[in-house]
Amino acid sequence: MNSKLQSQFQNYPWPRGVLKSAPHYIMILGLSGLFVWLAVSSISGKAPIYDEPIHVAGGYAALKAGDFRIDPENGVLPNMWGALPHCILDSGLKIPDKADPMWREHNRWRLTQKIMFAPSSDHDKIFLLSRMMFIPVALLAALTVYAVSLRLWGARGALVSLGAFSLSPTVLANSGLVKSDMFCALLMLLSAYYFWLIMEKLTIARLLCFISSFSMLWISKMSAPIIIPVLLAILLASSLLRASCHVDIINCRCRIRKWYLRAGLAFLLLAVSSVFSLALIWSAYGFRYSMLPDNNGSYELSILWEKLTEGNKLPEKTVDLLRKHRILPEAYLYGMAYVVKNSRSRDAFLDGKYSNRGWYSFFPLCFVYKTPIPIILLSCIGLASPFICSFKDKSRHSIVFLWRLSLPLSLALIYFLSAVVSNLNIGHRHLIPVYLPLFIIAGGAGLALKKNKWAKSMILILFSALAVENFLIYPHYLSYFSPIAGGPSKGYHRLVDSSLDWGQDLKPLKQWLRANRTDDSKVYISYFGSVDLDAYEMMQKRLLCDLEQVSHSLFRLEPGTYCISATMLQMAYFPDLAQWNEKHERDLQFYQKYFDLLHSASNDPHEVQRLVRQHGRDFWEDSLRNHEKLRFAKLASLLRKRKPDKMIGFSFLVFELSDEDITMFSGKR
Predict the structure, then answer these.
(1) pTM for the model
(2) What is the mean pLDDT of residues 462-486?
(3) Any long-range contacts for 460-467 (C-beta under 8 Å, 24+ apart)?
């Protein structure tokens, strides 16, 4: 069998590289330029998404103060990369004084707001600078997809892959955001690709590229361990489909034919790469174990550690062991423990249902709902084309195509399966590492382009349809839903959070309100995001928000304009209040009495003080907080039954409520 495989691989050359014609180079530049323009222009008018402020603040605190407490669970590499321009340029970011009790209390979100939303700061400039750092990363991912597809399928297939990448709403939605997802996807692909190449031929250049990408992956995102089964799958494919592995290092030139020798080479490679990864992790944290640069907050940190590592399961024991022997920096271990704990139980929403354990169907449905039909069809054609071509042309060997497909299929399937079994069902963005190999698979369609006119026409039609969908959703790529899901206007019935509503449309909402509503006292807002609404001069009346926002006065609900984030409307993170019932109504009526009492006295400071003394400050804070939640939950339950009067970017839903609507709300249900 080995001699037969060897003969097939020797007699079947690699596809030709770049066509030596000007149109091909023009198309590469055109698609790359189009991608950059779409990515940059689509984010320029958007507000910071939920996670961006804490990522930038975490990276800035790490670089400027050596303090890693703000955002340890995200990859330190993307955080520092996003904060780098603020360390070089004077963009207005300042580290709060260490005497601030928020440092000791580890109040990460309040620290973030102090760093990112100081009154004198130019917030738009700050986030634009950070976002621009991620455009080159996304462009490198595009060119990597092109290069891998070029290696597998030739020039035509590479253009198909690059075109699918450049027009994908999922890629465009996440390319300019300060997030770790694109970093992770790129480094996953590079690690798998260079390992796959090494299984063919081991050279110094390939070895260095693999070690570099593999090592950086471990400081880009906590999902890095998924790369291990991916590499093992490629090793298995090599054992089954490859006749031999060539070695060409300095004066050592040989061929490894036995599968167990290749397996030994692969495990030796992983061991050496792990040593380099360990060194890089320590260097990223300044070769310091402690998460804190001083003892300020060390006692509070120990309490947080106890909460994270309680339990006797294997992950907790592993983290405890690594922590005990200081194998990894404390901040890295804390991030691991945080991700493990939160991945076990996290509120999620799907098709009107709620769960804190997730569903096996979540990510498959995410993929179907959020992936354009043309990209799905291109991938199917790309998967089938190599075998159709080998069937029609006996000079083409299907076993060679299987080996080439083993690279993108191993990465796509294993990462997808890991997402499916996870309880962390909060966002379609977690599938980005699946999309890059999917585009490479789509490049297989290029094999059918050379002589088959039907294939040319079909692929042209699919790309035309993809371009039309891209044009229709621009610049609201994060809100894209395919016709299968009912389109973007129906998206909030399917998914929320980072699959649709990440707080990105706060600026467009602000612009719409300035143009269409002059009286802020008649505008109500419920916002899912971490931006300080005062910093963005959003002075409308504030309903329940995911992160607590300062409310400037007590107010009753009256006729007016209600602007509600899709995630808040669906009560995704308040699932116990999502289905309104008689108990909720009784609780609301109980707290309503105290709200009315305090609201009636709000114009008399002496009466307010008397009420506070009578019941205690803690009682009033709890009562007002519970009233706020229950009042909004009832409002949301009513609004979910009606169609929005206006949609801002498909993530902010605007309802015009009349006197009759408010009367209906005030009645007991």
Answers:
(1) 0.93
(2) 96
(3) 462/374, 462/377, 462/378, 463/163, 463/167, 463/374, 465/372, 465/373, 465/374, 466/163, 466/164, 466/167, 466/372, 466/374, 466/375, 467/167
